[in-house]
Structure formats: C-alpha cells, structure tokens
C-alpha cells in the first residue's frame, strides 16, 4: 500500500462509550486541549447523561439513541473520519483503561509507513496492565494464542481495544464493515482477521490497560454472549459462513 504523507491533523481519535459515568469524565479531562488530532466521542445509547456532559465541556459527540454495540460505534466513527477526508483512526474505550498520552506511540508505525493497522499490547516491553484480574489475564493469553495459530501472526494481545487503522483499509473490497452481524464485539476481530489474511501490514506497540481496583467493575463483557461475540468471527470466517 503506497503511503502519502500523514500528519497528526489527519488523525481521528474516536472514544466509544456507554454509561461510563465518572470514568468517562476523568478520561475526557486527560485529552490535551487543543490537540493535534481530531477527537470525537461515540455515545452508544448511554442513559447517564454522558452526551450532555461531553457537549457542555466542548467535546464533539455522535450519539446513538439506543445501545447498538461496539461494532456499530466503530462503524459510525470510521464513516465520520472518511467523510472528512482523514487518513488514520484511533479507537479507544471510554472506561479510562486506555491513556490518551499513549496515542502518539500507537499511531507512529502508520505515520512512518510501517503499518496499516496497529494493535496495542499490554504485554510488550513498556506496556502494563495494573490490577488485571488473574482469570482475565489467562483468558486473554489463551485467546491470543489460538488466534495466532489461525492467522500465523505472532501477536501478544489480540483483545486490547486500543487500536489504530489507516482509513483507506476500509476502501478494500475484501473488507465489508456494513454487515449487520458485526454490530458488537465481532467488528474488531473481523478487521483483525481480514488485515492478517489479506496481507496488510500489522504492528504491535506497548500500551497501558489500567484496570480498576474493584475487580467486579473491570469489564462490560458478558460472560457468555460477550465471549461468543469475540469467538464467532473466527468460526464464521474460517468456515466461510460469512464474508
């Protein structure tokens, strides 16, 4: 893929949020004002007045009237960036686990024309994941190992949602984000699969995933439906049930 020069003004940072309350407020205050990049919050149907607070503090918000899923939010963010002629999108969660000050590190491989997709990793040297629950840690490592066997890409942290993409990836005919089955967690793993299988350039960089000290509040992923959403893209794509 030929790379045209990209500056920080060509970057969109999209924060996906759903009922994150005070965690979102603390996160929003960490972003530099003014920043070198475009910043938008995708509110996935929150009922805690997140959109109102964000707008009152001068942030740009796209609000989905009902909770439609992470994939729907990512799709909206990508459409926003493409419609404005931007070149790179960073996806991060609004729960405060990911640090805005690490965005330059995340996008650097794309700016240097070394990657089309950058996956953040808490496990690379320089990364960290304080307060990560033991079971979650084991599940992430097992899941990542299984994905590596499928793809042949030696990643270390496929579940980390702190990611950056060249937006022109989504012009490729072999990547179809419009499919309804990608509305939730499937979207992120669908893109990961497509990038690896079609030979686009992938990179990992160290990032932080800072978990709360209260282990009961560390994730909104539901025990069964959430993990099924993360597993079924590999089944559907490998068996060619979906494209």
Protein model, in words:
The chain is an alpha/beta fold and 243 residues long. It has a single domain (8-238), classed as Spore Coat Polysaccharide Biosynthesis Protein SpsA, Chain A (Alpha-Beta Complex). Helix content is 34%, strand content 16%. It is built from seven helices and seven strands. The protein has helices at 21-28, 50-56, 70-83, 103-111, 134-151, 186-197, 225-238, and strands at 11-17, 38-44, 61-64, 88-93, 117-121, 163-166, 202-206. Helix 6 (186-197) runs parallel beside helix 7. It starts with 10 loop residues before the first strand and ends in a 5-residue tail after the last helix.
In a few lines, what is going on in this structure?
The protein has 243 residues and is of the alpha/beta class. The protein is built from seven helices and seven strands; from the N terminus they run E-H-E-H-E-H-E-H-E-H-E-H-E-H.
Secondary-structure topology with pairs:
Layout: E1 11-17, H1 21-28, E2 38-44, H2 50-56, E3 61-64, H3 70-83, E4 88-93, H4 103-111, E5 117-121, H5 134-151, E6 163-166, H6 186-197, E7 202-206, H7 225-238
Parallel strand pairs: 1-2, 1-4, 2-3, 5-7
Antiparallel strand pairs: 4-6, 5-6
The separation of the N and C termini measures: 22 Å
Averaging pLDDT over every residue, what do you get?
Answer: 92
The number of helical segments is 7
What are the segments in which pLDDT stays under 50 over at least 5 consecutive residues?
Answer: none
Q: Looking at the structure, what is the overall shape?
A: globular
- The arrangement of helices and strands along the chain is EHEHEHEHEHEHEH
Give the radius of gyration.
17 Å
Total number of strands = 7
Largest β-sheet summary: 7 strands, mixed
State the domain count: 1
